[in-house]
């Protein structure tokens, strides 16, 4: 599977406040990754770092197998914070300005307005749009040029239920077309309905990371390591009750099938001649992790 983005140890502070702390994750082609957390958990700062509108204190990230900077950003459509349009210009003229600024052709404007259901308002001044329509126009702006990757910061924020449903449907359509999407949200429900993978952030730190369906499944999630990591991985693949979720440096993150305990896992590995050096048990439910996350106040941006 093609790696679209690899983030390793990303850290950013504003004065004494650490907004993002040692953050690592990967995004693969076709995935929809949700950055989930309450306001102030570091979601927007992370997206700004990835787009290089802010710069990290430490850590690295690479787009498209090694690219960074303007060459990478040309293939990324973005909806970050409040979109800026000219209130007295119509939708077509506003998107022409965006297309010129991004070096995109003007022949894609009609297509993007069709995607977001705004062709009937193409000659309407921006100020005449409802809030939901304005958000859909912002999505049209992000879709100009048909980018392979979309970065969306709270795309349903402030919308009524009908507007949320409209914007969600557009995102799902893009997902089904094979787009890779990174979406920040404070709404667990939105992440569940749209995303394939999730990173849960609290105070700038990653407190959970994995497949949404795995985190919702109620299965036991475990991170283990051993001196011979390759032999450990090979052994784990022979057990049908174990699912390997990802490699994390010298560790392997796994999901245990129903009824398989960590004690039984350790005993089985010893019988196979493998001694594990660490075993870390994780909460299995995305909902339980999110509820734990929102109990305490977040302090970082």
Layout of SSEs?
Layout: E1 3-14, E2 17-28, E3 32-36, H1 43-50, E4 58-63, H2 70-73, E5 76-79, H3 91-102, H4 109-115, H5 131-143, E6 149-153, H6 161-176, E7 180-185, H7 188-194, E8 197-202, E9 205-211, H8 212-216, E10 220-226, H9 229-236, E11 242-248, E12 251-256, H10 262-271, E13 276-282, H11 286-295
Tell me what the structure shows.
This protein has a 6-stranded mixed β-sheet with strand order 5-6-7-3-8-9, sandwiched between helices. Strands 11-12-10-13 form a 4-stranded antiparallel β-sheet, with helices on one face. A 3-stranded antiparallel β-sheet has the order 2-1-4, covered by helices on one side. It is built from 11 helices and 13 strands. Helix 4 (109-115) crosses helix 5 (131-143) and helix 5 (131-143) runs parallel beside helix 6 (161-176). It has helices spanning 43-50, 70-73, 91-102, 109-115, 131-143, 161-176, 188-194, 212-216, 229-236, 262-271, 286-295, and strands at 3-14, 17-28, 32-36, 58-63, 76-79, 149-153, 180-185, 197-202, 205-211, 220-226, 242-248, 251-256, 276-282. The longest helix has 16 residues, at 161-176. It has 301 residues and is α/β, with parallel strands linked by helices.
Q: Structural class, from helix and strand content?
A: alpha/beta
Compute the number of strand runs: 13
What is the percentage of strand-forming residues?
25-35%
- Looking across the biggest beta sheet, what order are the strands in? 5-6-7-3-8-9
The mean pLDDT is 86
Tell me the major beta sheet.
6 strands, mixed
- The Rg value, from CA coordinates, equals 21 Å
Tell me the distance between the termini.
32 Å
Unreliably modeled segments? 296-301
Shape: elongated
Order of helices and strands: EEEHEHEHHHEHEHEEHEHEEHEH
What is the helix fraction of residues, given as a range? 25-40%
Number of helices: 11
